[in-house]
Structures are given as structure tokens and as C-alpha cells.
């Protein structure tokens, strides 16, 4: 069996909930790395999170490396 046929056969057996979970993790990761401006921590900190930008500063170098606009 060729390698690509083997991979396609195994992917088709994956549960739909697993695929949905991976898509959600991917979308959340893209948001945190590329677009978060204090939104994540504002759930806990309120409006002060928009001034602190903890997650933005934590992922700042990765944001630039991935090509997302920043400043
Ligand atoms: Zn920057």
C-alpha cells in the first residue's frame, strides 16, 4: 500500500469530534498568536488587560515570524 493511500485510510477513520477539536485548537491558536490584543485576559482582568497586553507580548516574536501585522 502506498504511503498516501495509507494516510488517507487512517484519516478517514478518525472520529469527527477529534477533527473538530483539532480545528478549534488551530483557530484558537491563530487568534492568540495573530490577533489577540488583550481579549483573552480581558475575560479575567477586565479592561486593564487591553493596556497590559500580556498575551500579545508573550507571542510577539512568533507573531512577527509568522508575518502577522503588529505595530
Ligand atoms: Zn510587533
Concise summary:
This protein is 75% helix and 0% strand. The chain has helices at residues 3-12, 16-34, 39-45, 48-52, 54-58, 60-66.
What does the secondary structure layout of this molecule look like, with pairings?
Elements lengths: L2 H10 L3 H19 L4 H7 L2 H5 L1 H5 L1 H7 L5
Bound molecules: zinc ion.
The site of zinc ion has 4 residues, from α6.
In words, what does this structure look like?
With 71 residues, the protein is mostly helical. It has one domain. 75% of the residues lie in helices and 0% in strands. It is elongated and about 55 Å long. The termini are far apart. The chain binds zinc ion. Residues 60, 64, 70-71 line the site of zinc ion.
Provide key terms for this protein:
0% strand; binds zinc ion; 71 residues; mainly alpha; 6 helices; elongated; single chain; 75% helix
Helix percentage range: over 70%
The helix/strand order is: HHHHHH
What ligands are attached or bound here?
Answer: zinc ion
Q: Any idea how many domains?
A: 1
Amino acid at each position: 500500500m502506498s504511503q498516501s493511500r495509507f494516510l488517507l485510510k487512517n484519516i478517514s477513520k478518525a472520529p469527527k469530534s477529534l477533527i473538530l477539536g483539532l480545528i478549534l485548537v488551530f483557530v484558537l491558536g491563530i487568534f492568540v498568536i495573530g490577533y489577540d490584543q488583550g481579549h483573552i485576559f480581558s475575560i479575567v482582568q477586565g479592561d486593564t488587560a487591553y493596556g497590559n497586553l500580556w498575551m500579545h507580548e508573550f507571542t510577539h516574536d512568533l507573531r512577527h515570524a509568522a508575518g502577522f501585522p503588529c505595530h
